[in-house]
Design goal:
The protein is an alpha/beta fold. It contains 7 helices and 6 strands.
Length: about 210
C-alpha cells in the first residue's frame, strides 16, 4: 500500500497516511482515462445551436419571376439557400451530445486518475483545510507553501463556504467535495490537494 506524508496548511509535515492500494495504487490505463475525459467533455456540450431552414425564415412566398422566358435561372422562392436572407442548408439543429460509460469503467478511470497523481508525486494530503473568514490571502499562502501556485484541485470532506469563496478569486484553482470528483478535473490539475478526512471518505466510498 502506498504511504504518503501528511502536511499542514503551512507545508510542514505532521504525520503519515497509508493509502488504499485499490484506489490510489491502481493500474493506469490510458484508453480508459481517454474515454472518461471524452465522455465528460461531450456531456458539457449543451447542443442548443440552431439555424433557420428555408421553411423557417420569413418571406419567400411569392415566386420571384415566371418559370420560363426571362433568360434567368428558374427560382421558386427568394428564401432558398442561395439567396441573401435565405435559409441555411444542412445547418446545425438542437441535438444531444450525451454519452455514457459503464459503472465499472467510470470507477477504473477514477482510480487510474488518482493513482497517476500519486505516482507522479502530484498528490498532496493536508491534515485539514479550513478557513474562518473569506480571505483569499489565506488560501494563496497555503498554495504557495504547498508548491501549488499553478492549477490545483482542492478536495474537501464537505462544502466549506469560507474555503470555497476564498479560492474563487485564485486563477486555476478549483474546489470540490470528495463525492463530486471527476477524472477530467483530476488530470487537468498540476497539484491534487486532498484533505486527510476527504481521503478517508474517498476510500470508504470507493474501496468497497
Amino acid at each position: 500500500m502506498p504511504n504518503m506524508k501528511v502536511v499542514d496548511m503551512a507545508g510542514k509535515e505532521v504525520g503519515e497516511i497509508t493509502l488504499s492500494e485499490k484506489v490510489f495504487g491502481a493500474d493506469v490505463k490510458a484508453s480508459v482515462l481517454h474515454a472518461a475525459v471524452r465522455v465528460f467533455l461531450m456531456n458539457q456540450r449543451q447542443g442548443t445551436q440552431s439555424t433557420l431552414t428555408r421553411t423557417e425564415v420569413s418571406g419567400g412566398g411569392k415566386k420571384p419571376w415566371k418559370q420560363k422566358g426571362t433568360g434567368r435561372a428558374r427560382q421558386g422562392s427568394t428564401r432558398a439557400p442561395q439567396w441573401t436572407h435565405g435559409g441555411v442548408a444542412l445547418g446545425p439543429k438542437p441535438r444531444s451530445y450525451r454519452m455514457s460509460l459503464t459503472q465499472k469503467t467510470k470507477r477504473l478511470a477514477l482510480f487510474g486518475a488518482m493513482s497517476s497523481k500519486v505516482a507522479a508525486g502530484e498528490m498532496i494530503v493536508v491534515d485539514a483545510i479550513t478557513a474562518t473568514e473569506y480571505k483569499t490571502k489565506t488560501m494563496k499562502a497555503m498554495l504557495e507553501a504547498l508548491g501549488a501556485e499553478k492549477k490545483a484541485l482542492i478536495v474537501l470532506p464537505e462544502a466549506d463556504k469560507f474555503v470555497v469563496k476564498s479560492c474563487d478569486n485564485i486563477p486555476g484553482v478549483k474546489t470540490t467535495v470528495y463525492n463530486a470528483i471527476n477524472v477530467y478535473d483530476i488530470l487537468n490539475c498540476d497539484k491534487f490537494i486532498v484533505a486527510k478526512s476527504a481521503v478517508e471518505k474517498i476510500e470508504e466510498v470507493y474501496a468497497k
